[in-house]
Backbone:
């Protein structure tokens, strides 16, 4: 865990959240853990998005477990290898991610 700056958004009004974090040494960042523990996400649907350099190890599983430990449901955690090519594709709109709740 670590101290984070306050979020200047009322997350309580949202039913669904997407949380994104890089992977550090096969785990989610301390700041993400702090966010999940500090803000009320009970009853929400929370999707995870991880960006990693070489090996995400168990980061997706750890993120999903932490989200569910805080009382939210986590239908999926998406992991993306953060290569220069994948970042270029995102910026150019060649790669798009969408959550379809239907």
Residues:
């Amino acid at each position: 865990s670590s101290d984070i700056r306050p979020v200047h958004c009322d997350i309580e009004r949202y039913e669904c959240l997407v949380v994104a974090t890089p992977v550090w040494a096969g785990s989610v960042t301390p700041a993400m853990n702090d966010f999940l523990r500090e803000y009320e996400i009970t009853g929400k649907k929370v999707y995870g998005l991880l960006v990693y350099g070489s090996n995400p190890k168990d980061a997706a599983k750890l993120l999903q477990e932490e989200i569910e430990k805080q009382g939210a449901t986590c239908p999926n955690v998406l992991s993306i290898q953060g290569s220069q090519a994948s970042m270029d594709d995102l910026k150019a709109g060649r790669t798009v991610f969408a959550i379809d709740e239907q």
Remarks:
- The beta strands are 16-24, 27-28, 45-52, 77-81.
- The chain is about 30% helix and 25% strand.
- The mean pLDDT is 90.
